[in-house]
Amino acid sequence: MPPSSKLTGFADEASRDLDKQIQATKDIGWSAISARMVGDKNIHELPEDEFNDVADRLDAAGVSIPEFGSLIANWGKTIHSDFDITLAEIDRAIPRMKRLGTELIRVMSYAQEPWGEDQHEEERFRRLREIVKRFSDEGLTAIHENCMNWGGFSAEHTLRLIEEVPGLKLVFDTGNPVFQKDRSKPQADGGFPWQDPFEFWEKVRDHVVHIHIKDCINPVSDDVEPEYTMPGDGQAKLREILGDAKARGYDGWIAIEPHVATVFHAADPTAVDWQQCYDSYVDYGKRFEALLAEL
Questions:
Q1: Homologous superfamily of 4-294 in CATH?
Q2: Which pTM value belongs to this model?
């Protein structure tokens, strides 16, 4: 496994305030943040002067940004959305990644259409080819996450993306399979079965260059949020996945994305107990280090 110097996390789950994100990171003993939200905007959507201030403050604090958790082609956009929105996000992200020395940017494959309806696969492939090319032309790597997007329907869907999109790499999220149905398997009385995190990992691991850590328990149905847990306490099979990654010589970054104190997708962030978020984020990071030490 990578050394602790290659552990990072979505510190916007501790606070949307940059100074508190930096402090939470240092309280764990780390020096890297997976950048996503600062204030009420994604890092690639901040006004230019605000981004420059963020970059200078990160430099002064000695905190690096190995990954952008971007909005590009994410679960909030359908395949019917204007592709110019995506292209503009790319154009804003590239110079900011270069300014911060960031090599990886998380992308997705647009929101899942209701199962049984036209998923517009060819248009997804076409768009992702362009997304990946624009980043790779600049020496940057687009990494697809197995989230609530087309590629998250199953490991087979993710592998189809690898076949169709030259240069695409993967970020594997350990928790996402726990609350998604496996559309590659036969339906039973209860519909499709839940995905198996380790089985998903085994099928895609050769293409994984980054790992996100979440843990949770199967939800009561596939239209509600799962119960998120501390690392190792849920059904994400963290020990099996990380043990296998270690045995295979994985040396990439690992990022925590706890979702424990509050779900990141919460509709009203102002109603969140941010002190609880801060404390639980730091606790999560330390518990995750302890779990790694067991391996």
A1: Divalent-metal-dependent TIM barrel enzymes (3.20.20.150)
A2: 0.96
